[in-house]
Write a structure and sequence with these properties.
Layout (H helix, E strand, L loop, with lengths): L1 E7 L2 E8 L3 E10 L4 E6 L13 E4 L2 E8 L3 E7 L6 E5 L11 E6 L2 E8 L3 E7 L7 E2 L12 E7 L2 E6 L5 E4 L4 E3 L12 E4 L2 E4 L4
Antiparallel strand pairs: 1-2, 2-3, 3-4, 5-6, 6-7, 7-8, 9-10, 10-11, 11-12, 13-14, 14-15, 15-16, 17-18
Length: about 200
């Protein structure tokens, strides 16, 4: 079973599950002169305890949430190299998992959600490196969770919703601002961006 994810020139990367080798990455090289396809599984990749997901292409990287016995469910990157995948950041150190999710590209960085003991579930960003990965803010102070969702690129940053506070928020790269009126539990269930206009549904 494979899931197309990203391409690197003529190299196409897939999330895959091999009955013999378990979950990990495979690749396909498409030879345009003959139309032939050569598939090879990366045996050198780390052994994940489940199929790595979700994932996002960012430049020459594929970012994804991968779970192994050493780090739990954390942020990894695949560079289209037979050397395999590399851990980007162990956000929740040790076997505890941060569960990266809701990956969204905005410019040359990716935003996602992750959970820590100190800050709960909040908004994070990464450029695919350890030094370029950090929590952007702590909307629900302390260990409480803002639980951002529905992340989408918008202007110079992104918009998102929060389960804790409701409404639609805008992160401009440094500060998060609530665009719609407060109201805990307000989730629009459907948000779309067209230029500078945000469309959303709101229950009456």
């Amino acid at each position: 079973m494979t899931y197309p994810t990203s391409s690197f020139g003529t190299l196409y990367a897939f999330l895959a599950h091999s009955p013999a080798q378990g979950p990990g990455w495979s690749w396909s090289t498409f030879i345009t002169a003959t139309g032939a396809v050569n598939d090879t599984y990366f045996e050198g990749a780390p052994t994940f305890s489940r199929l790595p997901s979700p994932s996002l292409a960012l430049g020459d990287l594929v970012l994804f949430a991968g779970e192994d016995a050493t780090h739990g469910d954390e942020l990894w990157a695949f560079e289209g190299d037979p050397a395999g995948s590399q851990l980007v950041a162990d956000i929740a150190p040790g076997v505890r998992s941060s569960h990266p999710d809701h990956f969204t590209a905005a410019g040359n960085v990716a935003y996602f959600t992750a959970t820590t003991v100190a800050a709960g579930n909040e908004l994070w960003r990464t450029d695919g490196t350890a030094t370029g990965t950090w929590q952007v803010n702590d909307l629900a102070a302390g260990a409480d969770s803002a639980t951002p969702s529905d992340l989408q690129p918008y202007k110079q940053g992104l918009i998102f919703e929060t389960e804790a506070f409701g409404g639609i928020w805008y992160f401009d790269g440094s500060t998060s601002t609530q665009l719609t009126e407060p109201g805990a539990g307000f989730i629009s269930m459907s948000v779309a961006v067209a230029g500078d206009v945000i469309y959303f549904n709101r229950p009456l």
